[in-house]
Design goal:
The chain is of the alpha+beta class and 315 residues long. It is built from nine helices and 13 strands. The two termini are 32 Å apart.
C-alpha cells in the first residue's frame, strides 16, 4: 500500500502547475517584432495568412541573410500545424503550448501549410496555403518593409511526429497507475500478503492502554526527576506547600487505604485546581506526582489513574 501511495505522490509531483499562457495578439506581436529585427526586407502575405476564432496563421516573406525566406507564425489551442513537402511532414519549432513559429524558412522548394486536429487528422481550411519557391529578384522591393537585418542562424524543422494532447496523456497515465494498483491489490489478496494477512492485521491493532501506560509512566518519571533537580538547585527559593506533599511520597503511608471515589474532589481538598487547562507546567507536574502517589498506594484504580492523567496532559 505504501508503494502505491508513493507512486501516486510521485506522479502528482510531475503534473505541471497551471501557468498564464500568452494570447494570440502577444504571439503575433513577438513574431512580427522578431521579423522586423532579423530580416533585411520583408512583407506580410495577407492572402496566405488566415485568421479565425480557432486559429491564427501569419505568413511573411522577404530577404533573410541575403536569401529568399518565408516566416510562419501559428497560434491555436485546438490545432497543430505542419509544413508539407515532397519529403514528408515537418513540425515548426514550438514557442509555447499554443503556438509555434519559424522566423526564416529558405524558399528553396514549395511548401504547403497543413493544419491538424488533436487526433493527427487534417483540418480543412477554406483555402489551400502554398508557399512557392522564389528568388530575390521575384520580390518587389518597393512593397516591402526594411528591417534591421540582425539575422541569426537558421532554425531547424523536425520531422513531424504525432503528439498526444496532455489531457489524453494524463488520462492514459491515470488509468495505467490505477490498473497497476488494482493488480497489486488482487495479487496481495490472493497471496494473503500485507493487509490481507490476518496475523499481521492482529499485530497491527494498537493497544491504546499499553501505549498510554508507557507514555504516562515516562512522563511521570521525567516530571519527578525535573522537580527534584529544581528543588536541589533552588534551596533558597520558597517551595509551594504542595511540593512538600509530593516530596513525602511513600512516607507515613498505610499499606491499604480506602479507595477514593471522587478523585477531583480529593485533589481539590488538597488545594489543587482541577481545571487542568489553566494550570502551568509546574502545577501540572505537582498534580501528576500526586496521582502517581495515589496509584501506588492503591487509593485509585489504574483505570481512573489513566483517565485522569489523560485529562491532565491532553492539549
Amino acid at each position: 500500500m505504501k508503494l502505491m501511495l508513493s507512486i501516486w505522490l510521485a506522479f502528482l509531483a510531475l503534473i505541471p502547475i497551471t501557468e498564464d499562457l500568452p494570447n494570440a495578439e502577444d504571439i503575433q506581436n513577438v513574431f512580427l517584432d522578431t521579423v522586423d529585427d532579423e530580416y533585411q526586407q520583408y512583407q506580410i502575405l495577407n492572402d496566405l495568412s488566415y485568421y479565425s476564432t480557432d486559429l491564427e496563421l501569419i505568413v511573411v516573406r522577404g530577404i533573410y541573410n541575403n536569401l529568399p525566406c518565408y516566416g510562419i507564425s501559428f497560434y491555436s489551442d485546438k490545432f497543430d500545424v505542419v509544413i508539407s513537402t515532397v519529403d514528408g511532414l515537418y513540425s515548426l519549432p514550438q514557442t509555447s503550448k499554443r503556438s509555434s513559429s519559424i522566423i526564416a524558412l529558405k524558399a528553396e522548394m514549395t511548401y504547403e501549410i497543413v493544419v491538424l486536429t488533436d487526433k493527427g487528422e487534417e483540418y480543412k481550411l477554406p483555402k489551400t496555403i502554398l508557399l512557392s519557391k522564389f528568388i530575390n529578384d521575384d520580390l518587389n522591393l518597393n512593397e516591402m518593409t526594411i528591417g534591421k537585418n540582425n539575422f541569426k542562424p537558421f532554425q531547424k524543422v523536425d520531422i513531424y511526429t504525432y503528439r498526444l494532447p496532455f489531457y489524453k496523456s494524463l488520462i492514459i497515465v491515470l488509468i495505467s497507475i490505477s490498473s497497476l494498483c488494482l493488480v497489486m491489490i488482487i495479487i496481495m489478496f490472493i497471496m494473503k500478503k500485507g493487509f490481507f494477512n490476518k496475523e499481521k492485521r492482529k499485530q497491527g491493532i494498537l493497544d491504546i492502554r499499553s501505549i498510554l501506560e508507557a507514555e504516562t509512566e515516562d512522563k511521570a518519571n521525567d516530571v519527578f526527576d525535573d522537580i527534584k533537580d529544581s528543588i536541589m538547585a533552588n534551596n533558597d527559593n520558597v517551595i509551594d506547600a504542595k511540593a512538600s506533599i509530593v516530596e513525602e511520597k511513600y512516607e507515613d503511608e498505610e499499606a491499604h487505604l480506602e479507595e477514593i471515589e471522587d478523585l477531583k474532589g480529593y485533589l481539590q481538598s488538597l488545594g489543587f485546581i482541577t481545571d487542568y487547562n489553566v494550570l502551568s507546567e509546574e502545577e501540572k507536574n505537582l498534580v501528576m506526582l500526586e496521582l502517581m502517589k495515589l496509584k501506588d498506594t492503591k487509593r485509585i484504580s489504574l483505570k481512573k489513574y489513566y483517565e485522569e492523567t489523560y485529562q491532565l496532559w491532553k492539549k
